[in-house]
Amino acid sequence: MIQLKINEKKLLMFFLVMSFLSNFHRVWAQGTVTDYKRAYEIYSLYANKALNVDVKPVSIVGQDAFWYVVETKDGRKYVRLDACTTEETPLFDQNNLAQQLSKENGKQIDGSGLYLRSVNYDGENKILNFEDDSNTYIYKVEDKSLSVKKKEKNVIGNQRHWMEVDDERGGNNVTSPDGKLMAYIRENNVWARRLSDGKERQLSFDGTEGFYYSSWIQWAPDSRKIMTCKLRPAVKHYVYYVESSPEGRVQPILHKQEYAKPGDELNFKIPCIFEVETGRAIEPSTELFSSQFSIQQCRWDTDSRAVTFEFNERGHKTYRVLELSAETGKVRTLIEEHSDKYVNYPFLWRYDLEGGRYILWASERDNYKNLYMYDRKMALVDHQITRGKWYVRDVVKVDEKNKIIYFTANGDVEGEDPYLIHYYKVGFDGKHLTPLTPEHGTHQAVFTDDFKYMIDTYSTVTEAPVTVLRSAYDGHILKTIVSADLTALKSVGWKAPESFCAKGRDGKTDIWGLIVRPSNFDPAKKYPIVEYIYAGPGSQYVPKSFHSFYWDMTNLAELGFIVVQVDGMGTSFRSRDFESVCYKNLKDAGLPDHIAWIKAAATKYSCMDTTRVGIFGASAGGQESTAAVLFHPEFYKAAYSACGCQDNRMDKVWWNELWMGYPVDSSYIRSSNVTNAWRLTRPLMLVVGELDDNVDPASTMQVANALIKANKNFELVVLPGVHHTLGEHFGEHKRYDFYVKYLLNVEPPKWEDLKLKN
After folding, report:
1. What is the three-class DSSP state of 539?
2. What's the CA gap between 715 and 628, in Å, rounded?
3. Average of pLDDT values for 5-10?
4. pTM for the model
5. 402-405: long-range contacts at Cβ-Cβ below 8 A with a sequence spacing of 24 or more?
6. What domains sit in the chain, N to C, each tagged with a CATH number?
């Protein structure tokens, strides 16, 4: 009897503890139906709450003036700004236009809510052009007359897919600058015809079906010579995929798509020159451009004495600007970039100055990206225009008359996030470097035609946009046009994300990222961490300007996660050394830097739980998220990987050969998630669209096959009729459930309980 009472007491204590834990779980619960609904509804909650976060000024051609739309509590206002006087006036009579549109379309339109699409404003004639789904409109501002024209139905023909390489056979006949001659291709050879009497002359005789002359013909300015390329086409590589569930039919469709992959044969070109009068043909030696990835930017000099073209070497270790003499037929190097890893050719920039003697050039040759003045005659750098541990991002304007370059750059401001973009101007001689937008933030500017004035909008992820009118001479502010108003946004619980900096894998290099917390964030709680990754080289990806909503991060956080994004080594706009960590090593993906950064953030914020870290991404991010759980399972506990290029041999030639090199070697195997699939020890969800025309869907299926052969448990989601994607609505829900299950350790709500609409 006594023993029974003791057991009853123990049993009672057990139930009390379980009851407490149950109530405790309800208090601290995450991943609930309520959380899901908030995750799906938060975008609409935040939408249109902030005013003037997206002001987009447009310069008015031929005037020192701009127009833009500002948002007020009373509605939208279309404004014209006179930059000289700083006076703002209505661009047009909004109430009048709204009345006419209401009458025209049979729908009541309020002038204060007027939203015009595809607006073009002719300042000289004061005419406003815009459109909607059915009509195009012309509104004459001064006499307030509106004319309407029904849109013609667009008939979309068989357009070339962006992956296709033009065979250069379908060009039109080309008339000479003096209008006297016509050049064209007939039976793979170059011909010319005199227009006055129709007399023809064959200029080339060696064109064949397998090595023909391109129909992209260029006349010399003097109308005496022709340039075109002799082209040996490569055998095309195709991928095939099945559209399982096409609209309006039962049977599937097999699609065929041109798709060159690493190691495939590529076209070979030889720029050639023909003298029309004499019939002289110049086919140069290919010694300086033999191992071709591409030949491009072929163009005549203004004096008709030479053709310049750019040679990109296969493997991208050498890039040359070459000159083909129309007199001697010799080719010489004007500019050469060389690297033991790769020349980042998409970042090169060239501008031939009037007169032809000098070339402006931008490259990463000093480990950063700077501007140079090249002396073409000497084929040497005359002088370096910009210097510093920064990155010239874009040349906005070359003012040859005043010898000034306007450009954007990042990394120049001491102590600032190095990715924030500012505007500058500098003389051709490298002197008088002038910051035009010194305020903290990343800047986006629009200039008047004469570059006297600029409207600049600047912000950070935490600081709302400010739009100002500046002098483009020295950048001083002439007028603050509008500052964003976040009052209504904050009233519904919005809080800014955090820009966070910590040291990377080497303990020295600053790594920058973003931290997004749920709107109901409680610092006393512990939150799993989910990283959104796209860390491919060629750009940087962590947002730097203000947004009220960050897709795939803000909504996911609402389920009870802290979501982060990081720019680690291997990404761009810091230095060549910073980026080239990726070379022959795309599996690195900057992940050691990401791990160090997340650990540093968790050291500062105890709410971040580094024992529960997930990761997701698409495309290159799909490859990288899978790599995270294969190569760093001690840190990353679950991965969602959509349409990943899981093996770089399976993806696009131009992306992968730049970063992984040519010829295809063992480095491709070492970075392959297919050959490393046996390493999987963590939950993995693979997602792919069956019609993905960006990354071959077979890449995902091959890693799935390798996982099956290795007897690994994983999830595979194939989306019928879907192209390149992170997962769309279905995949998004699967991603939510995946992390709720594996990081929150909670059974996700039943889909029918959420009552969501696709």
Report:
1. coil
2. 16
3. 48
4. 0.94
5. 403/427, 403/428, 403/429, 404/428, 405/360, 405/371
6. 22-49+492-754 (3.40.50.1820), 53-152+437-485 (no CATH), 168-232+267-300+308-339 (2.130.10.10)
